[in-house]
Amino acid sequence: MTKILVINGSYRSDGITDQAINVMVLALREANADVDVVLLREYPIEFCLNCRECTQQKGSVPGKCVQQDAMQALVDKIERADAYILASPTNFGSVTAIFKRFMERLVVYAYWPWGQHSPDFRKNNEPKKKALLVSSCAAPGVLGRWLYDTHKQLKTTAKVVGAETVGTLFTGFVSQRSQPILPPQIQNKAKSLVAKLL
């Protein structure tokens, strides 16, 4: 059974991002995938301390963080998963602050000894897993995808954990109403995209 890990960086319960994830999760479960959804808004992750203690050990296994929070359990989930859905709406031209906090803690996936100018990512030489990227913005979808950093940051996150991006769901014009509803054509695209993870 394929294990899919969903990491959702939306602040808003039942907003566009949650609605898109719900459609995808339902489709994956109908295809007998094992799906685990992590809502970062409910997940206790502290800020990275930039101590780089976790980056000093060689090898493909993620380093150990000095923080005593739930990030280690999330790294364990990342390691066990066969594929990912990484999601964040666009806030101020970027992923949300909670998704960025999560991204920064992924430094455990880097080997970066003192004196070395830049990190080597631990998963670069391993077989790639698959990832779908989900985002939205107030601007037109195509424009938002290219103007803002959200898509780039989600793609970087996938790469760091050892995944290749195989599909993207980017919804535009999401600020037209206070209670947005995921359009039927986007729901259909969300359903069709999940096949790329299986």
From TrEMBL:
Q: Which residues form the NADPH-dependent FMN reductase-like domain?
A: 2-122
Q: Does the keyword Flavoprotein apply?
A: yes
Q: Name one Pfam family in it.
A: FMN_red
Keywords from the UniProt entry? Flavoprotein, FMN
Q: Which InterPro entries match?
A: Flavoprotein-like_sf (IPR029039), FMN_Rdtase-like_dom (IPR005025), ISF_SsuE-like (IPR051796)
A GO MF label: oxidoreductase activity
Signal sequence extent: none
Q: What protein am I looking at?
A: NADPH-dependent FMN reductase
What is the species listed in this Swiss-Prot or TrEMBL entry?
Answer: Neptunomonas antarctica
